[in-house]
Amino acid sequence: IVTAKDKDGNEWLLKTYKGDHDRVATELLANAIYRELGVPVSNAGLGNSKHPEYGDTMALAYPLVKGDIKRWNEPNAELGEGFVADALLGNWDVVGLTQDNVLWNNGSPIRLDQGGTLEYRAMGQKKTFGPVPSELWTMRSGMGQANGTMDITEAGMRASAADAAIRLTPARIDDLVDQAPFDDEAMRERIRQSLKDRVAWLDAFSRGEVDLPRPLAKKEASDYFAERDSGLETMPSEDQAVNDYLGPLGSEIDEHLQSGEPKDQASEEVRQTITEMDMLL
Q1: Which residues are CB-contacts of 62 (< 8 A; sequence separation ≥ 6)?
Q2: Does the pLDDT value for residue 214 go beyond 90?
Q3: DSSP 3-state assignment of 219?
Q4: Per-residue 3-state assignment (H helix, E strand, C coil) for 129-186
Q5: How far apart are CA 193 and CA 197, in angstroms?
Q6: Rounded CA gap, 236 and 244, in Å?
């Protein structure tokens, strides 16, 4: 990543990804789709940069924009308005580990870094980009970056999904994908098809034809576990381990596991119980 000035004195941020044109194309396409969906992002385009190893190479060119990087502690509704676009693009790192991928301009969020979208993770590892935008639930749960940072409702997601289906027609997806400078044509076609499949899923979701996955509850849950456990065969030592854990030994086991200490620093009884429970699980 380097900065440069054009002939008019405007500053630009250039990202070459060390000559990897497919990563440049991925981020360029992600930004184009965000803009198509009305989600504020920096107006990235293509430029050229001198790279010490790769020489003159294609670069993603961002005009530097004004704003502040800040930490926020309450879920933000305006940021949440773009969540369906985040899920569609598989932007797992939308907020950043230290909330440094969002720029705040007059209180409004701008998504800064779309390098971890589509088939790439933020650091360049490949990831699955399948036909269903499972990020609609994974990014809102556990360690997902929308959890606690975005104010999101299911009604809002369905409305955004309907809007995405209207804006991103198959023909428009073709236009945007064709404009992206992928070297890997197989990747281009995979992304083209996955985007169309994901938008079709969003369309069905907006119409109530499919729902987000929900945990089983009450009788449905107890019936499921009763049926599943009816065929479970356990060894006597595993049964004993469960009983020990449910008894006085449980607190000692929890304390050891939460401490992060190696197993060999626990008592022999705790080590044996943990081993048996691991085998059972």
Answers
A1: 12, 13, 14, 15, 42, 43, 44
A2: no
A3: helix
A4: CCCCCCHHHHCCCCCCCCCCCECCCHHHHHHHHHHHHHHCCHHHHHHHHHHCCCCCHH
A5: 6
A6: 12
Tell me which residue of 111, 85, 83 sits closest to 168, measured CA to CA: 85
- Decide if 84 contacts 202 (C-beta within 8 A): yes
- Exposed, middle or buried: residue 139 (CB in 10 Å: 0-12, 13-18, 19+)? buried
* Helix or strand (DSSP H, E) at 45: strand 45-51
CA dihedral 144→150→153→156, nearest 10 degrees, is: -110
Q: Is the pLDDT of residue 53 over 80?
A: no
Tokens 């381990």 sit on residue: 241
Note whether 37 and 173 are within 8 A (CB). no
Sheet holding 11-15, edge to edge: 2-5, 11-15, 55-63, 45-51
Q: In the structure encoding, which two tokens stand for residue 132, read together? A: 């269903």
pTM, entire model: 0.76
Report how far residue 132's alpha carbon sits from residue 197's, in angstroms, rounded to the nearest whole number: 7
Sorting pLDDT into bands at 50, 70 and 90, what band is 57? Answer: confident
What's the mean per-residue pLDDT of the chain?
A: 91
pLDDT tens digits, residue range 122-143? 999 999 999 999 999 999 988 8
To 10 degrees, what angle do helices 249-259 and 268-280 make? Answer: 80
Radius of gyration of the chain (CA): 24
Nearest residue to 206 (alpha-carbon basis) of 161, 172, 251 = 161
